[in-house]
Amino acid sequence: MKVFEHWILVKADSKEKAKTHIKSFLDKYELLYYDKIEFSEILRGDDIKFFDTLFSFFINDLEEEGYKTFITYLYSSFRWFYGN
User: Fold this and answer.
1) Three-state SS at 46
2) How many domains is the chain partitioned into structurally?
3) Which residues, given as ranges, of the chain have pLDDT below 50?
4) Same domain, residue pair 82 and 54
5) Parent domain of 22
6) Distances in Å between the alpha carbon of 48 and those of 3, 24, 54, 73?
7) Residue 65 and residue 16: Cα distance in Å, rounded?
8) Which of 9, 31, 30, 32 is nearest to 21 (CA)?
9) Residues 36, 65 within the same domain
10) Torsions phi, psi of 25, nearest 5?
């Protein structure tokens, strides 16, 4: 069995509600079937770790395209805004 990691953004009041929304969506999704759904981590959008994780996935690709200054500025701004 192959394992695929997905990032899914949802609006929910709690981690449990977020899981429920995601499972409901994937159960109704007709193009793909998932034998098993596991949640490795659920992060709130106002958690600095959310931004750290998000940027870690995209920063290398964007830097390779020449956006290093912009990404550095954006990342610093988010960290400043959230007080870290």
Assistant:
1) coil
2) 2
3) none
4) yes
5) 1-42
6) 27, 27, 10, 16
7) 38
8) 9
9) no
10) -60, -50
